[in-house]
Design brief:
alpha+beta, four-stranded antiparallel β-sheet, 9 strands
Length: 200
């Protein structure tokens, strides 16, 4: 379950000069408070969603919305609001997402580089996760390695999800039949993007 929503936080308050209260007409007693809204996911701010103002006369203590102010009040508020900056922490969620994306890209590149090295030097007990020509995923294990080829045991099961490989990677699921793959076969599989991962 994803918890998301929006909330407002107080950013800044100031007294508006040369502004009369629309209710009691007292001069220079109108206080403006700016609140910044933001969207959150699991209560982590993701991005700002604008600012809103709340107004109160310190003399009669009546509250107003922006539309309840006169033209002088609206102009004074506009000038004040322009000085209120959005806090950096309201972008926390975007920063976390950006870091996760960068981490994911880096991890993927490291895995690709590791696989590229391992396919050149097969070893006994390596476990290959590969994509079949029909788009499914399965595994095979290296039983023995020779100079230009290897003996392997195929997994008898396939899955339509990359994340489902762990569910079929059971000792009882591997065929006892021995198959031969040459080093060139493995390299071609890698070049075509069929080899997803190698565990050593």
């Amino acid at each position: 379950m994803i918890v998301f929503g929006h909330r407002s936080t107080h950013l800044k308050s100031a007294q508006l000069r040369n502004v009369k209260c629309p209710n009691c007409e007292t001069q220079d007693q109108m206080t403006a408070s700016v609140y910044g809204r933001h969207v959150h996911v699991f209560w982590i701010p993701v991005f700002p969603a604008g600012k809103t103002g709340v107004f109160e006369c310190q003399h009669c203590h009546k509250g107003f919305k922006k539309k309840g102010l006169g033209e002088d009040g609206k102009l004074a508020y506009k000038n004040f609001k322009s000085t209120v900056k959005t806090p950096v922490w309201k972008y926390s969620g975007l920063a976390i997402i950006a870091l996760l994306i960068c981490w994911g890209i880096d991890a993927s590149e490291q895995k690709d580089n590791r696989v590229a090295e391992l396919v050149k030097q097969p070893a006994m007990f390596d476990k290959y996760t590969f994509k079949t020509e029909t788009g499914y995923f399965s595994t095979f294990k290296v039983v023995e390695v020779f100079q230009d080829s290897m003996y392997i045991n195929y997994n008898n099961y396939e899955t339509d999800r990359r994340t489902g490989v762990d569910d079929i990677d059971l000792k009882k699921n591997y065929s006892e039949a021995i198959y031969v793959l040459t080093n060139n076969d493995i390299l071609r599989m890698h070049e075509k993007g069929y080899i997803e991962d190698i565990e050593r």
